[in-house]
Amino acid sequence: MKIKPFLTEQFFAHYEFTATHVLASSDCETTSIAELLAISGGSLDEFGAIKLGYTETQGHPEYRRLAAQLYDNVVADDVVILTSPVEGIYLTMQALIDAGDEVVALGPAYDALHHVAEHLCGEFQNWQLVPTATGWEMDLDRLSSLVNSQTRLIIVNFPHNPTGYQPTCSELEQLVGIARDNDCWLFCDEIYRGLETGFEQQATLPSVADLYEKAIVLNGLSKTYGLPGLRAGWLVARDAKIRQELIGWKHYTTICPAAPTEYLAIQALSVRERLAERSRKLVSSNLAICTEFMNQRRELFRWRAPLAGSTAFVEIDVDQLGSHQGRAFANTTDYCHDLAQNHGVLLLPGECLGGSGRFARVGLGRAAFPAALAAWETTLPPLDAGR
Ligand SMILES: Cc1ncc(COP(=O)(O)O)c(C=O)c1O
User: Fold this and answer.
1) Sign of torsion, CA 84 89 90 92?
2) Residue 2: pLDDT over 80
């Protein structure tokens, strides 16, 4: 069986490095090696002296120690360092899922979270977030009806890409309760953790790694810390047996982390609060601009402001946008390709993320966001036209 195409990465591969205005990214503004080392107190000389031999498969002990500090009940031994965050999704699914296993996954979702699981188990239960008038909700009754003692794994992602949804602490505990009552594994992708930016500023949720013994948690430096080119990520698994399985699969993928990345990741983790604060400020400021923009164009967009993370999922009236341009768009996929090709503005079609063709993802983490939004605006009907 062939795995489904990774539509998000395909869309970015096609346009990301040629589009003038990238409005769809999920990562936050990045930094240079020199700037990172200046903040952390590392040095280019030290970096230059790194030997390029193999490294420890589970990851450098200091890197694991610093990663473990993000959790209350996790020690360095519970951490498995990856060669990229996305690798952690592949390793976890391989370690946990066999053909025919029952899997429930939150949707919409970053493609890998659904496709790798589906490839291995055959078919999974898609547990959809529910859009409300102003935001998104998790339907825990629906989850209870989908999960039973045969369920092998529940897959979630909080803060959520693309909606920016995050549950309350009590909702998260209820979700963990459902996993515990059914004795199934819970994989939580927490790569946007620490990016709580909504207007009523949310608290950082406890990590699922701290709440549940049968949790596997993914995190990394790509999003909240703005370092996607470092390809730095880790899994947390407090269960020793499953950790060995993850490491076993790692031998077939990347064997060990890259030595230069390990050095820089250690530097970044030593100043992680500073990096995260910079991203939070940027996302908060872009979110305020975006919310005003959307509120002024209620006839075109339904805006559900994100609570956390660096993305939002906006519902777009493509019929109106099409009639303004004297043409017809079948859905947001059609519209986003046109916007990229003819205006150099990148929004990610919702269908790439398994969402409906009425939605597109907006990314709020980049410094050029206001300019990119202004470029998009030039393609829209003038503000007073619809009033
Ligand atoms: C929810 C989620 N998990 C994992 C990843 C993978 O991160 P990376 O591309 O840095 O490997 C992404 C990237 O967009 C993501 O959105």
Assistant:
1) positive
2) yes
